[in-house]
Each structure stands twice: as structure tokens, then as C-alpha cells.
Amino acid sequence: MKKRLLAVTAALIFSMFFSLAFVSCDKQKTKFVCHSLDYFDTATTITGYEESKEEFDRVSGEILKLLSEYHKLYTIYHRFEGLENLCTINDLQNGAHRTVSVDSRITDMLLYSKDMYDVTNGKFNIAMGSVLSIWHTYRTCGLADPSQAQLPPKDKLTEAAKHTDIKDVLIDAENNTVYLQDPEMTLDVGAVAKGYAVEMAAKYLEEQGISGYVINVGGNVRTVGTKPNGESWLAGIENPSPDSDIPYVAYLNLSGESLVTSGSYQRFYTVDGINYHHIIDPETLMPAKGYLSVSVLCCDSALGDALSTALFCMPYDSGISLVESLDGVEALWIMADGSQKYSSGFDKYLAE
């Protein structure tokens, strides 16, 4: 299986530019880059223009600190001493969930996710953990030993799907508590956690009056302002066809926007010669069909993250109707045959 470390669905094409210092407000600013592999089980790249490396290190350090905090809060796989997080919310005690007092950044994200459930008519559902955990187990085993790779039994998935009702996620925003009413329910925020964390980090920069940065966490890209000389950032949407000699299907100009892509080529395993990817349709309980990738461009990385997953699970007619109904949202669908379809305002972001 061809591994792509960054899953660079929206990889920034920084190498296309000369590494020159730019003049802003009579002071030179130089481009700096830092990398990390510590958060959300993927690669993080922070790029920014500053007058000194010391200042860039300070700002990027603040971003990484925030990403670390969100990673610990939103992981469903790890517990941390003295911290209630998504993992401990999913825990059972004596066969039942408990009411968990959490950081407001958890309740805020969960409330946002419940809103997105309504916006997408259930195609985005953080209460799908019981189903997704089965797929995760079978995919992990299949990758570890491809000769023994199997699909999850349909009856097992159907039984798990009985425990995915978003109404059983009870959130008290005033007291910052979360309770899962169904003892067989678990949460999985993999379709929104990275995007939400990236958006919060970007908002922190904006609140501090800091511009000229790009945060890229596993292909969830958020730009903060422009380059010091006023130029847009250039971002590429990766070609989902592994046999193509063309690495990117489109290049976009971004100036404060976010770009997020969900694709069938990013994480998958193979059973009897057929690839099964990780984006599971809540209706069929199987990997969604119809597209190679869906990219969402908007001003909010959390919205882009959630929408890209939901649109991947929607028929095109439903997806395009949803996108056209949302202000400031554009999308690109790459169909199963490699053809492309755009929302009405997408082309205005295309680089020449």
C-alpha cells in the first residue's frame, strides 16, 4: 500500500516560490517553517513570515501548544492523568457511561458537531463510534496481515448502528458536562477534531493581530492573512489517482481561507483485491462510493473538515444543493471516473 505521510489532500505548494525576504511596513520579513509529528497522528507544518526566527519560534510555539492541548482533549485512544477527554467520556463504569465534567473546548466542539449533524442531515455524525471502531479494528488487522484481511460482518455493523443516535449525546453547556445516555454508544470526532483545532489556532493568531501564517495539520489547511507583500498563498489539491503523472488537479489562491479534502485514496486496506477506505456512510455502514475526493474551501477549517466528510457520503445532487445554500462555501468533487465538478464560485479561487 502506497503510504502518504501527510495525506496531503491540500498540500501547500510553498516550493514554487523563491525564498526571498519581503518588505512589510518598512521591515523585512522572512519565511520560516517548522514541522511536528506529535498531534492528531499526522504531520503538522506551520509556515509564517516574521522579522526574526526568534519571533517565529515564539508564535509557532504558541500554535503547537494549542494543538497539543486540543489533541489531548479530543483523542479517543489515549488517557492523560488528571484530564477528562473524549476517551474518558467513552469509558464505561459498571456497564454505563458517567456524567463527565470537561473543558469547555470539548463541549463547544460537541455542540458544534451536533449542529453539523443537522446541517448535513445526519451524514456527519460524531455518535458513529460504535460502527467506526469495528471498521478501525478490521482495517488495522488487515494492514498488519494483508493475507488475512476481512470485511466486518454486516450483522455486526447493523447491531452497532443501533447505538448511534445523536440525541443520546447529552451536553450541558452551562456546567460543561457530557453524558452518553446509551451505554453501547461511543463518540468518534475524527471527521472534525483536526479542523476544529486548526481553526481555533488560527483564530488565536487573528485575535493577536498576527498575519502571514499557514497552519497545515494532516492536509487540513488554514491560511491567516496573506504574505507580507499582499500575495495570496498558493495551495494544491492532490490528484487522487495514484497512477497519474500530474500531482495536483488544481491550484488555488487563498487569503485567510481554509482548504480541506476527504479522499478514498488516503487511508484504506485491501480485501480480495478491492480497496476499502475509511469514510463510512452512516446509511450503508460501508465505505462511501461515488467519488475519489471532495475538497471544501471556506473560511472555517472546522466547517471544511466536517463538510468534506459529509459531502463524500452524499449523492452529488444533494451535496451541491447543500454547498450552494451555505454562504462562503465552495467545493470540488472528483468523481469515480476522474472527472471534476465544481460549485458555482469555486473557479474564482483557481490560480492561473
Note down, in words, how this protein is organized.
The chain has 352 residues and is an alpha+beta fold. It has eight helices and 16 strands. The strands form four sheets. The chain has a nine-stranded antiparallel β-sheet with strand order 1-2-3-7-8-11-14-15-16. Helix 1 (53-74) packs antiparallel against helix 6 and helix 6 (193-207) runs antiparallel to helix 7. The radius of gyration is 20 Å and the shape is globular. The chain starts with 21 loop residues before the first strand and ends in a 10-residue tail after the last strand. Residues 1-26 have low confidence and may be disordered.
Shape: globular
Question: Would you count the extended β strands for me?
Answer: 16
Give the mean pLDDT: 92
Question: What's the SSE pattern?
Answer: EEEHHEHHHEEHEEEEEEEEHHEE
- Going across the biggest sheet, name each strand in turn: 1-2-3-7-8-11-14-15-16
User: Radius of gyration, rounded?
Assistant: 20 Å
Q: Outline the low-pLDDT stretches.
A: 1-26
Sheet/helix structural class: alpha+beta
Query: Number of helical segments?
Result: 8
- Helical residue percent band: 25-40%
Main sheet properties: 9 strands, antiparallel
Question: Which keywords apply here?
Answer:
352 residues; nine-stranded antiparallel sheet; 29% helix; globular
